[in-house]
Amino acid sequence: MVEEYRAQGAPPPIEVDQQQADPSGPHKYKWVFHAPPVTGPGGHVPMQMPEEWSDDLGRHLEALGFITRAELDELAGEDGMVDVKAVPAARIRHDPPQTGPRSWLNPGQWVPVSAPAPAMQHGEVDLSALSDEEAEAVRVEAEAIREALRRREVWKARLADEGGER
Q1: Residue 98 in contact with residue 117, Cβ under 8 Å?
Q2: What was the pLDDT predicted at 65?
Q3: 99 within some domain
Q4: 72 in the same domain as 154
Q5: Is the pLDDT of residue 46 over 90?
Q6: One domain for residues 96 and 137
Q7: Number of domains in the chain
Q8: Beta-carbon neighbour count of residue 5 at 10 Å?
Q9: Does residue 148 lie within any of the structural domains?
Q10: Quick check: helix, strand or coil at residue 78?
Q11: CB 65 within 8 A of CB 36
Q12: Tens digits of residue pLDDT in 8-32
């Protein structure tokens, strides 16, 4: 079995039972993801995904506290009001990525709501926690970046000398 790499200080992955209320059978919110129309090449087309993904996403919604209008109606009293405490609470939350930009390709993690808030790292990287090989790799990469920036400055200076400012 391959051991998963986890950054120092990264929270542990969500245990299956925290995200999936009942892993047996189709999930009650699976229908939410049944061929919803999305804008794609050529206009609106139904989004297709494997049924297992719909099941997993339905469980994910439930872990976030999602309920339908019909379920809200069931929770409502005779006056039509819903006690907020009767609405299911989220069991997971999304934390931003610990390093790098917030983007679709650097999504961060889903963690239990009880997990401590992530400590955002700013500034210098602590190399003391790295192995000798990892520290050497960081040093080599940093030197390559410095050299690339130096060459860029030389290139910009040459362009300025030639009158072609960029």
Answers
A1: no
A2: 94
A3: yes
A4: no
A5: no
A6: no
A7: 2
A8: 6
A9: yes
A10: coil
A11: no
A12: 666 666 665 444 445 567 889 888 8
pLDDT value for 21: 46
Give 68-111 pLDDT, tens digit per residue. Answer: 999 999 999 999 999 999 999 999 999 888 877 778 888 889 99
Q: Which structure tokens are listed for 46?
A: 């139904």
| 101 and 152 belong to one structural domain | no
> What range does the domain containing 143 cover?
127-161
Q: Specify whether 41 is located in the same domain as 102.
A: yes
**Is 6 within the bounds of a domain?**
no
Residue 35 in contact with residue 47, Cβ under 8 Å? yes
- pTM of the predicted model as reported, rounded to 2 decimal places: 0.56
Domain-embedded: residue 93: yes
Query: 111: buried, middle or exposed (CB in 10 Å: 19+, 13-18, 0-12)?
Result: buried
The CA radius of gyration of the chain, in Å to the nearest whole number, is 25
| Arithmetic mean of pLDDT, 130-146 | 87
Q: Which helix (H) or strand (E) is 119 found in, with range?
A: none
